[in-house]
Amino acid sequence: MLLRGGIATALLVLTMAGTAVADPSAQVVGGTRASIKDNPFAVYLAPTADTRDPRCTGVVVAPNKILTAAHCVDEGVTGPKPIPLNKRVVVAGRENVHSTGEGVVAKLTKIAINPKYDGISFDSAVLTLDRSLHQKPIRMAGAADRHLYAPGKSATVMGWGDVKEGGDTNGYLMKAQIPILEDETCRVFWGDDGQGNDFYENRSMMCAAVMKGGIDACNGDSGGPFVAGGKLIGLVSKGEGCARPNHPAIYARVDAINTWVAKEILL
Predict the structure, then answer these.
(1) Enzyme catalytic residues
(2) Half-sphere exposure of residue 142, counting CA atoms within 13 Å on the CB side?
(3) What would the pLDDT profile of 221-243 be if each residue is shown by its tens digit?
(4) Do the domains 2-25+40-137+257-266 and 140-253 sit in the same CATH topology, yes or no?
């Protein structure tokens, strides 16, 4: 199973306690250029030493708060544990990672990993920044937005990740339309977790893919926005390879974490 955050795709290893051990590494395959002006809520995480190196994607949910995938900021050694704050910065307002004179680089002052995150489920984290951004936050899906998750509908995924499996980022924010699938499609594909339980569960996950292949999120897109109806409905979480035929991907459901994120925004 592959997480989708950083330079190289990370192999997920499950410990006996069911906790993921991963090197956070997941751009959109088969996508098109996306405008940062039209999507100001899209940001990326980069090493402090090089802001041209997108490791994960994130979403502005409040002026000084970023929502991303937990595995992007999890040390992954002794269970869920945040990486040191000085390891990453958030880059906002920069469409091309090489345009270093554009956008804002913000430091992290806090990393809150979802308390329900076990390396698989509830793959989400809220980052607090050292400043407030001017980028407009996106609205998050909630309990009244179940219709946005209906199988057959499509949502837009975005990120700065690789543009092909085993390739590299092209440096630009990319986007693609991905259809939402029935939960059973992912449940069958992903099988069990090695302990007899379904790996995929629909409490905190949603299933999406272009089943003929050719279009997908990829390495560096982890934590990236999955948008429908003008709202954030999901975050890029897990996939096997990138854009392979009949390989459904898992996105973290935002309606399942909305209340927790709202509380973190107030802290």
Answers:
(1) 71, 123, 222
(2) 9
(3) 999 999 999 999 999 999 999 99
(4) yes
